[in-house]
Specification:
By secondary structure, this protein is of the alpha/beta class. It has 2 domains: 181 residues, 3-Layer(aba) Sandwich (Rossmann fold); 66 residues, no CATH class. Helices cover 38% and strands 25% of the residues. The chain contains 7 helices and 10 strands. The protein has a 6-stranded mixed β-sheet with strand order 6-7-8-3-9-10, with helices on both faces. The longest helix has 31 residues. The radius of gyration is 19 Å and the shape is globular. The chain starts with a strand and ends with a helix. It holds the Pfam family ABC_tran. GO terms for molecular function: ABC-type quaternary ammonium compound transporting activity; ATP binding; ATP hydrolysis activity. The complex is composed of two ATP-binding proteins (OpuCA), two transmembrane proteins (OpuCB and OpuCD) and a solute-binding protein (OpuCC). This is Carnitine transport ATP-binding protein OpuCA.
Length: 261
């Protein structure tokens, strides 16, 4: 397998209290797959993505990319965060060029930056500052910056969560187009069932307390998914059922805890 997540466990210790965040996470992801990680708040979705990025160390277990263990951040993984995290003093072009500064000469880096800015349809904004762009445009710059490093895996942590529905819909379309063009492996964290169905080859549905994999769903609905509303609705109902059961479990645990304390 291309990306192997083997027996990942993560615990946080706060004031001598140990919390199990992730327990026994095992996933095999093929090269070129678009995989969404879906689940309620607190299930460890972002923590798992951070471990794959090399930003967080697991308590136990290992992650292999192309057979090599991930120990720290690397240029083989591009990260797109919830917020664009652009440098406000740099232009759009300079932001995309930034991770290339040690890899290639300035002229070549500029050519690469323009290639990916064209891919995200921002060729006319190369000299703009981030504050002159809308939130959706800033996130597209972030995507172009991550892609400019030509990573093996693109990691996306709820990149469209703060955007309005119209902007999200447009970026869904653009991201799907980019994925088809680049054939990148994408690991995408989301709270949105509809977003995960629209974009993904697979949906990893997670439960919480601790974070576990409830189900690994292979989405067999042909693309574009909007042309198959009945199949989409059926899958939404299935995932809603999984998450409702999980949320009901958490509520019962909280009520039991409150009654005993």
């Amino acid at each position: 397998m291309f990306l192997q997540i083997n027996n990942i466990n993560k615990q946080f210790i706060n004031q001598k209290v140990t919390s199990d965040v992730l327990t026994n996470i095992n996933l095999d992801i093929k090269e070129g797959e678009f995989v969404s990680i879906l689940g309620p708040s607190g299930c460890g979705k972002s923590t798992l993505l951070s471990i794959v990025a090399g930003l967080t160390k697991p308590t136990s277990g290992e992650i292999l990319l192309g057979g090599n263990p991930i120990k720290k951040p690397g240029k083989d993984r591009g990260m797109v965060f919830q917020e664009p995290a652009l440098f406000p003093w740099m232009t759009v072009e300079e932001n995309v060029m930034f991770p290339l500064r040690k890899e290639m000469k300035k002229k070549e880096a500029r050519e690469v930056a323009h290639q990916y800015l064209q891919m995200v349809q921002l060729s006319n904004y190369t000299k703009h500052s981030p504050h002159e762009l809308s939130g959706g445009m800033q996130q597209r710059v972030s995507i172009a910056r991550a892609l400019s490093m030509n990573p093996k895996v693109l990691l996306m942590d709820e990149p469209f969560g703060a955007l309005d529905e119209q902007t999200r819909a447009r970026l869904h379309h653009e991201l799907e187009k980019i994925w088809v063009e680049t054939k990148k492996t994408i690991l995408f964290v989301t709270h949105s069932i509809s977003e995960s169905i629209k974009l993904s080859d697979r949906i990893i549905v997670m439960g919480t307390r601790p974070g576990v994999v409830l189900e690994d769903i292979h989405v067999k609905i042909p693309r574009p998914r909007g042309t198959h509303p009945q199949a989409v609705a059926k899958l939404e109902e299935k995932i809603n059922g999984l998450l409702k059961t999980e949320i009901d479990k958490v509520v019962k645990e909280e009520l039991a805890y409150a009654a005993n304390n």
